[in-house]
Design brief:
Radius of gyration: 24 Å
Order of helices and strands: EEEHHEEEHEHEEHHHHEEEEHEHEHHH
Number of domains: 3
Strand content: 15-25%
Number of strands: 15
Length: 446
């Protein structure tokens, strides 16, 4: 690189070198494609899950591990505490996986540790601090062993259906160890160890979840939708879904936590979207906004038939662009008929889509929706897809700014986001389609 970009004047770009000398160039050297920028675009697609770089561990996450305190939280093979309640279903070795409880060395009401719906004001350091206290027990099983008479299997399922924090005692075959688990889908958690025994005192199951569990003729989709309508939180549905608590008796199986999160978000989003498409359009262009964890969120709604897009811009020094020299932008979208393939940017797409359809259903309105997300350098660690769902929800609880045109809306958005309107529009399939078909002449000033 030639140095720090100072600005542009008379079609020339000016840079300041480390020795203080100022140089210029006719073209912006920052805009040249570079290998590490291409690598970081690949990181946004992968997010530490697909291992597209060919390595068996994500180097970005490994680098973050080295910056964090990772000593074991206990120095014994025995642990007792109040589970939030929380369980974890692994995916390594699928269809042979590991299941078990997550227990902190803390007593009392620990529900806050595994209820993302309540994490609205938390900062990233607080989140990692209390989530790292959750010690994971592991029992190897086959995904079809949901009806096993094994006591640990039964108690793991009961824990996932519990209404409040029960007291738990666990014994491991060795002292728990390992790094804090970090990825872009699941919430972080602490060290782990194989389970030797597992006991729960005075467990009280949520009667709504318990009823769905005993209804072995109820399809999983219908169970998830019905419980959601009955007020069960999404995070609880995801846990119950992961332990095979729903569905026809002969088809029940364990579902890795990572997959159950997206499965529930997608199922509920599809259900609500069917109603959204029947409602009248909104009457104005709306802009909702919110900031949390150094992420800036803007939800742009336009009067049109249903379409949806999520675009994310990752700044250098963020979780999935730690060494990049430029902002990496990527998005996924769907039209009125929906998608036929899995979204390129992963589970966050379905989490945000659920939140948007919740809002539109509550108003009985339909709209074209584009979500713009800027992840700034303070977002140093991936903390799970809940971050997307809950922050879009919070954005949509705010009173929106209302405008007559998209051009007016982007004049407002320029005061919220750092990236220019032109760049967002170039990246967006929905915006280009909306502007080209309906009101291009009113937007020609951009």
């Amino acid at each position: 690189m030639p140095g720090r970009l100072l600005g542009k004047k008379n079609k020339r770009y000016y840079y300041q070198k480390e020795d203080g000398k100022v140089i210029s160039a006719m073209k912006n050297i920052w805009d040249r494609p570079r290998q590490n920028d291409l690598d970081n675009a690949r990181c946004i697609l992968c997010r530490g899950v697909k291992y597209l770089c060919g390595k068996d561990r994500c180097p970005i996450v490994v680098k973050q591990y080295s910056k964090m305190k990772t000593e074991s939280l206990i120095n014994s093979t025995k642990l007792d505490g109040a589970s939030p309640p929380s369980v974890f279903i692994g995916r390594i070795g699928y269809p042979k996986i590991s299941i078990g409880p997550m227990v902190p060395p803390v007593h009392g009401d620990t529900a806050y540790m595994d209820t993302p719906e309540t994490w609205g004001e938390i900062d990233i350091h607080q989140l990692v601090e209390f989530r790292s206290n959750l010690v994971r027990g592991k029992l190897p099983v086959h995904i079809t062993d949901v009806e096993s008479s094994n006591k640990i299997v039964e108690l793991t399922r009961e824990l996932a259906l519990a209404a409040r924090s029960p007291e738990v005692e666990v014994e491991f075959s060795k002292i728990p160890s390992g790094q804090i688990a970090l990825n872009d889908v699941e919430q972080p958690h602490g060290p782990s160890a194989p389970l030797k025994s597992f006991n729960v005192d005075n467990i009280k199951m949520d009667n709504r979840l318990e009823k769905a569990f005993y209804d072995t003729d109820l399809k999983a989709r219908n169970a998830v939708v019905g419980l959601f309508k009955n007020g069960v939180m999404v995070s609880k549905l995801q846990k119950a879904f992961s332990v095979g608590a729903f569905g026809l008796e002969e088809k029940r199986k364990f579902v890795p936590t990572r997959w159950s999160i997206t499965a529930v978000d997608s199922t509920l989003g599809d259900h609500l979207m069917g109603f959204t498409k029947q409602f009248p359009w909104i009457n104005e262009v709306r802009v909702y906004e919110h900031v949390h964890l150094d992420n800036r969120w803007v939800i742009l709604m336009m009067p049109s038939q249903w379409s949806y897009e999520l675009i994310e811009a990752w700044y250098p020094k963020t979780a999935w662009n730690p060494d990049g020299l430029r902002i990496s932008i990527m998005g996924s979208h769907e039209g009125y008929k929906g998608r036929t393939t899995y979204a390129e940017i992963g589970g966050c797409y379905y989490a945000a889509r659920l939140a948007v359809n919740e809002r539109l259903n509550a108003e009985r309105r339909q709209a074209a929706v584009v979500i713009l997300r800027e992840a700034h350098p303070g977002y140093i660690l991936p903390v799970g897809v809940w971050n997307v769902r809950e922050n879009v929800r919070r954005s949509l609880r705010n009173e929106p700014a209302k405008f007559n045109t998209v051009k007016e809306a982007f004049e407002h958005i320029k005061n919220i986001l750092s990236i220019s309107p032109q760049r967002w529009i170039r990246q967006s399939a929905i915006l280009k389609n909306y502007l080209f078909q309906t009101r291009l002449d009113s937007f020609c000033g951009l």
